[in-house]
Each structure stands twice: as structure tokens, then as C-alpha cells.
Write a structure and sequence with these properties.
The chain folds into 2 domains: 147 residues, 2-Layer Sandwich (60s Ribosomal Protein L30, Chain: A), CATH 3.30.1330; 259 residues, 2-methylcitrate dehydratase PrpD. A 6-stranded mixed sheet has the order 3-2-4-5-6-7. A two-stranded antiparallel ribbon has the order 1-8. The longest helix has 22 residues. It is globular and about 70 Å long. With 426 residues, the protein is of the alpha+beta class. A hairpin with a 2-residue loop joins strand 6 and strand 7. The chain starts with a helix and ends with a helix.
């Protein structure tokens, strides 16, 4: 059976998410486990998270909690909500009453959080009910992927390791840049409508972010003070910063994610959309460029992993956005697209990820800035070649080289950052 790469990526990696996707995934795992108990209340819950998931959920605000932060709060809310059918938007149902019940669980030390040495995305929740029922739920391989679920030792759901390696991911890993362009160009009306829905969702999130005196606000101030000039680049950076500001501040408004990340969705979608509209590109071309952006974002993450030591907004979404801008102007000009990808990876490829938090908006801004510079240099056929640094003989090779640096060269980065974070918690 031939795989439709775009449809698979849109289905599995591009979805609405309310709040940072790591703590929301923690809440989803907890809600799934608690839902198996049905009317039985939770007595004790013990969670085990991989280091990167722990890192990403530590400092970010949780929606509908009046500014509370972290995985522990998200887990407790999931235990009370018991609504896994809502997936990555389950926290929209948090009320003051539900929040108080969740905080009671935390005060009673009924929710315990641990980190484990696991490669890849991993969340395990062990729940004990008031009547002694025991539930185990594991999410692995993706933010919404329930890989194991059991009640009192009886397996209710299990995905074998091989089955978890989705065929579309294997196909994505084998794809070339031209394959991704072809997949984007064959987007049908359903695909384009869904992509447009993501545009509207992220524009609305940016509008809400205007309320905050955060990164977007201060960029506007720099324009007012004439320290920065008002132009297409600064306007795009402000648009994306505002969306990230609101999301990281726990706003109760979903964004359309990309590669399982809301901030990556902001960059992958809003950069090609806003620049394309300002440069009078036809809407269908813009939407197909966003399809290409989603595909390329997913392609990079096949190599770097779901959660990497380096910032996904920079090396995945930024790459997708840069290539999308070239596609809008030059179509399937592989030389131009390759140079744009080389440029941005050479520029900000080493940007560290130290978890989701307000500071992510700064990294979003850096990613947007580099994506635009890299794209418009690439359009003119200027860029970094394999003669320099770790840049490869093709865009695909450059991405694979970066993956080696992330997965091998930076092997101890996440554990070091997590260690610093744990010291801060103490």
C-alpha cells in the first residue's frame, strides 16, 4: 500500500494542542490511567518520565491554573479529569473545583514524580485506586501514543516495539527533499482546509498574546523607540513571539502543533503564511508551502528524535519555514532550498533546549529571523556549502550530520540540564 506522507504527517504530528505538549501528554497519561478506575478515586499515582519530558514540562505554565507550572500539576489534573478522549485539549475542561481537587492530591503527596533513563519520549503512570485497583499506563513514541495499558496486571492495550515504528515514519526517513515537495504539491482540498484551520488557530493565539508584556510586546517597543525598523522581518517575529508568549503563559487557547510541538507549529505555519500574504503569493501556494513546512519539520525530527537536546524551533520548524519561503518564490528549486536549509542549520543549529518556558518566545524570534535571512539568501543561490563545518553535500546530509551532533556529540546535554533543574527544585 502506498503511503500518503502528507496525510500521515497531518494526522499524527499536526493537531490542536492546549498548553505545552509535554505536560499535556503527562496529563493525558494520568487521565487515561484514572479513567480505567471509572468511579473509583485515585489514592496514589507514581509517574516516571524520561529526562527530556521532565525538562520540557518543568517551567511552563499549565492552562486554567492561574499560573501554576509543571508536570506534577498537569498529572494531578489528569487524574481528576479522567477525560483522555479529549487528547491534547483535555485541560480546557479544568475548573476551579477540579484544580482544587488536583492540588489536594499534591498536598497529600498522592502524586509522585520521578525521572528514568529512557531513550526517546516516555511517560509511565502507575495508579492505585481507593479500593486497591492498580492501573499502569505508558505513553511512548509520541505525545498521544498509548503503548501500554493494564488493570490489575491484565493487559488492556499493548503495542509491540516493532509495531510502534510507524511505516509512515520509515517512509519519511527515506524521503528526499524533492519527495516532500511532491507530497506537498499533491495536497487535496481536505488537506488544504485542515492546514488553513491551523493558520486561523495560530493567528488567533497570536492575537491573544498581544495582552502580555512579554517578548512580542518588547519587540514592538523597540520599533516605537526606532531601535528596530518596522518591516516584514520584525512584523513576522512579533506575530510569532506573541503566539509563543501566550502559549507559554498558559493561555486557554489551542495552537496547531507541528511535529508534536505547539511552538514548532507557530513557526512552521505562521512564518510562511504571513510572509506569503505580504508578498502577494496565491493562497493555494501558501498553503502548499505550509504543507512542505510540516513535512520537513517532521523529516528533521525523524533523525533528531521527538525531543532533542537542541531547540526544535531552530533546527526543525525553522528549517521547514525557511524551505517553505523558498518554495513560494522558486518552486522546486533544490539548489535554493538546499542553501536555505544549510544557512539556517549553520547559523543556529546549536541552540540548546532547556525546556518549555517563557524564554521559548526568544528562541522562536531567533528562529524566525534566521529562517527569513536564510531563505532569501538561498533564493539568490547564496549559502553555506559542504566546504564549511558540518554542512553536507545535500540538505538531507546536512540534517543527518546535525542529528549525529545532537544524538552522539550532545549525549550528556539533557542529563546535565536536568541535573541543574533538579538542584534548583531542591
Amino acid at each position: 500500500m502506498t503511503i500518503n506522507l502528507l496525510k500521515e504527517v497531518l494526522k499524527h504530528q499536526v493537531y490542536p494542542a492546549l498548553g505545552c505538549t509535554e505536560p499535556v501528554s503527562v496529563a493525558l497519561a494520568a487521565a487515561t490511567a484514572a479513567s480505567v478506575l471509572k468511579k473509583e478515586n485515585v489514592k496514589k499515582a507514581t509517574l516516571f518520565l524520561d529526562g527530556a519530558t521532565f525538562k520540557n514540562g518543568l517551567g511552563v505554565k499549565v492552562p486554567n491554573t492561574s499560573g501554576l507550572r509543571g508536570n506534577l500539576v498537569a498529572a494531578a489534573l489528569g487524574l481528576v479529569l479522567k477525560n483522555p478522549n479529549q487528547k491534547m485539549e483535555l485541560l480546557k475542561h479544568v475548573t476551579p473545583e477540579i484544580l482544587n481537587k488536583a492540588l489536594d492530591l499534591i498536598r497529600q503527596k498522592s502524586v509522585v514524580l520521578n525521572t528514568v533513563s529512557k531513550k526517546g519520549f516516555y511517560i509511565c503512570v502507575n495508579v492505585v485506586g481507593e479500593k486497591g485497583s492498580k492501573v499502569k499506563c505508558i505513553i511512548s513514541g509520541g505525545h498521544q501514543e498509548i503503548s501500554y495499558l493494564s488493570l490489575n496486571g491484565k493487559v488492556l492495550k499493548e503495542k509491540k516495539q516493532k509495531a510502534q515504528k510507524k511505516s509512515y515514519l520509515q517512509a519519511l526517513k527515506k524521503a528526499s527533499i524533492i519527495d516532500l515537495i511532491c507530497a506537498a504539491e499533491h495536497a487535496d482540498k481536505e488537506d488544504l482546509a485542515y492546514i488553513k484551520q491551523g493558520v486561523k488557530m495560530n493567528l488567533a493565539a497570536s492575537k491573544q498574546g498581544e495582552e502580555l508584556e512579554k517578548v512580542g510586546f518588547y519587540l514592538k517597543n523597540l520599533v516605537k523607540q526606532r531601535i528596530l525598523s518596522k518591516n516584514l522581518v520584525i512584523d513576522t517575529k512579533i506575530l510569532c513571539a506573541q503566539a509563543a508568549d501566550g502559549r507559554m503563559d498558559g493561555f486557554s487557547h489551542p495552537v496547531m502543533s507541528s511535529g508534536g510541538s505547539g511552538n514548532q507549529g507557530i513557526v512552521a505555519i505562521l512564518v510562511p503564511y504571513y510572509v506569503g500574504t505580504q508578498l502577494k503569493i496565491k493562497e493555494e501556494k501558501i498553503l502548499k508551502s505550509i504543507a512542505f513546512s510540516h513535512l520537513l519539520n517532521g523529516y528533521v525530527k525523524v533523525f533528531t528524535g521527538e525531543l532533542a537536546p537542541i531547540c526544535g524551533c531552530a533546527i526543525a520548524a525553522g528549517v521547514g519555514a525557511a524551505a517553505a519561503l523558498v518554495y513560494q518564490q522558486k518552486g522546486a528549486d533544490i539548489k535554493a532550498i538546499t542553501l536555505a536549509i544549510n544557512n539556517i542549520i549553520s547559523d543556529i543549529g546549536g541552540m540548546l533546549c532547556d525546556g518549555a518556558k517563557s524564554g521559548c518566545a526568544l528562541k522562536v524570534v531567533s528562529s524566525v529571523d534566521s529562517a527569513l535571512r536564510s531563505a532569501f539568501m538561498g533564493i539568490k543561490h547564496y549559502g553555506i556549502t559542504e566546504a564549511e563545518g558540518f554542512v553536507g553535500s545535500s540538505a538531507e546530509k546536512t540534517i543527518q550530520n546535525l542529528s549525529k551532533i545532537s544524538n552522539i556529540g550532545m549525549l550528556k546535554v539533557d542529563s546535565t540540564i536536568v541535573g541543574i533543574m533538579k538542584e534548583k527544585i531542591k
